[in-house]
């Protein structure tokens, strides 16, 4: 799972139409970076996305998440929100990622996997955003 850092502030500063364009650009650049036909990305709600990587280890998922994080940052979409940079000036749109992996069995539900990814995302944001966190 990932979401765009300080997206509410982006919408407040630039307007909802600009926010919609950012969502579309982030989705597009992320989709372009997925390498396998079975990999896919969906909007999970608001500024949050879920990336599904079938038959991928945690290590592989971390690699993909880091590639996506870098690709989003490289778009260099201006985001003049002072909280995002400690007050030093214009920054760019970034994203934080929470990664988890599982081998399906009867003891774990899809909601368990989502919960772990969400917890890892929360940790990434708590550690400063624009990073990838993981949880087994």
CATH structural class: Alpha Beta
The outline comes out as globular
* Fourth-tier CATH superfamily name: Reverse transcriptase/Diguanylate cyclase domain
Q: State the end-to-end distance.
A: 14 Å
List SSEs in N-to-C order. Answer: EHHEEHEEEHE
- Measured as a percent range, the helix fraction is 40-55%
- Strand share of the residues? 15-25%
The total strand number stands at 7
Low-confidence stretches: none
SS content category: alpha+beta
Q: In angstroms, what is the radius of gyration?
A: 15 Å
CATH architecture annotation name? 2-Layer Sandwich
State the major sheet: 5 strands, mixed
What CATH calls the topology is Alpha-Beta Plaits
What is the total domain count? 1
Q: What oligomeric state is this?
A: single chain
Give the rounded overall mean pLDDT. Answer: 91
Descriptive notes:
It is built from four helices and seven strands. It has a five-stranded mixed sheet with strand order 2-3-1-6-7. A two-stranded antiparallel sheet has the order 4-5. The protein has 136 residues and is of the alpha+beta class. It has one domain: Alpha-Beta Plaits (2-Layer Sandwich). Strand 6, helix 4 (110-126) and strand 7 form a beta-alpha-beta unit.
In short:
This protein is of the alpha+beta class and 136 residues long. The chain has helices at residues 7-14, 16-33, 58-74, 110-126, and strands at 2-4, 40-45, 48-52, 78-79, 91-92, 95-99, 132-134. The protein has a single domain (2-134), classed as 2-Layer Sandwich (Alpha-Beta Plaits).
